[in-house]
């Protein structure tokens, strides 16, 4: 959806029919509200806080709606006693999906793929002592934890990590409207940056943006209408 249409739809949802009551809303406010609405919508879909109570990949619709945000990045890491630790998570990181790791040891120099489970940092010491859950080269299984915006892949010194990749949900691309001040930089945008989601998702996010703006201007009727439309289509 192009930004002219997006902006028109936001204003239309806020205005009473055949009125121009809220035409004084500036374009940078629409940009900020829509970008905020994108993040709120994505978070609701990821954790299942929507009318269908479905999280990511729990239905065909969620798979289809969220797949544009799935990203894979090579993990740069450093070797430590018993684990490897990654560099800082990508700047656009939003939510963990999985880690793919390959490892080898002295007996088997050819790298093999590991199943890597996400675990709580608080339970790391317990898992390392558990014969059924500790890192194992024989079973090609281990676990990782998240802390300090970094990922630890535990090896228990049973194998060496030879390669690792992170799959994660990234933040949505922020829209920009040409000629409008970018609310994040204070600089006038010279080009349009359009919403990356498909049309039906964009329509739902517009309802969320209208809800935010209606709350800001204390327009309870528009707020309730936008909220109902968003809930019905999440």
SS-derived structural category: alpha+beta
| Uncertain spans | none
Strand-residue proportion: 15-25%
Overall 3D geometry? elongated
Number of strands: 8
Number of helices: 6
Largest sheet: 8 strands, mixed
H/E element sequence: HHHEEEEEHEEEHH
Q: How is the largest sheet built, in terms of strand order?
A: 1-8-4-5-6-7-3-2
Radius of gyration: 23 Å
Mean pLDDT: 89
Helix fraction, binned, reads 25-40%
Distance between the termini: 18 Å
Please tell me about this protein's structure.
With 234 residues, the protein is α+β, with helices and mostly antiparallel strands. It contains 6 helices and 8 strands, in the order αααβββββαβββαα. The protein has an 8-stranded mixed β-sheet, with no helix packed on it. Helix 4 (124-129) links the parallel strand 5 and strand 6 (141-147). Helix 1 packs across helix 5. The protein is elongated.
Name some characteristics of this structure.
eight-stranded mixed β-sheet, single chain, 6 helices, about 230 residues, 8 strands, alpha+beta
Report a brief summary of the structure.
The protein is of the alpha+beta class and 234 residues long. It is built from six helices and eight strands; from the N terminus they run αααβββββαβββαα. It is 33% helix and 24% strand.
């Amino acid at each position: 959806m192009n930004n002219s249409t997006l902006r028109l739809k936001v204003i239309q949802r806020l205005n009473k029919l055949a009125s121009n009551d809220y035409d004084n809303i500036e374009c940078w406010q629409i940009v900020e509200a829509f970008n905020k609405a994108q993040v709120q919508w994505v978070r609701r879909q990821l954790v299942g806080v929507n009318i269908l109570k479905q999280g990511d990949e729990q239905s065909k619709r969620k798979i289809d709606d969220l797949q544009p945000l799935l990203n894979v990045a090579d993990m740069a890491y450093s070797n430590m006693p018993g684990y490897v630790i990654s560099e800082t998570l990508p700047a656009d990181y939003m939510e963990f999906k999985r880690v793919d790791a390959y490892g080898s040891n002295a007996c088997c120099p050819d790298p093999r793929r590991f199943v890597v489970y996400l675990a709580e940092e608080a339970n790391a010491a317990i898992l390392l002592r558990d014969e059924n859950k500790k890192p194992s080269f024989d079973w090609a299984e281990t676990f990782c934890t998240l802390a300090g915006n970094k990922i630890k892949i535990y090896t228990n010194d049973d194998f060496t990590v030879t390669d690792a990749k992170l799959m994660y949900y990234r933040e949505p691309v922020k829209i920009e409207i040409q000629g409008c001040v970018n609310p994040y930089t204070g600089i006038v945008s010279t080009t349009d940056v359009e919403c990356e989601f498909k049309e039906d998702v964009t329509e739902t996010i517009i309802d969320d943006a209208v809800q935010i703006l209606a709350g800001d201007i204390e327009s309870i009727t528009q707020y309730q209408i936008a909220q109902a439309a968003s809930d019905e289509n999440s």
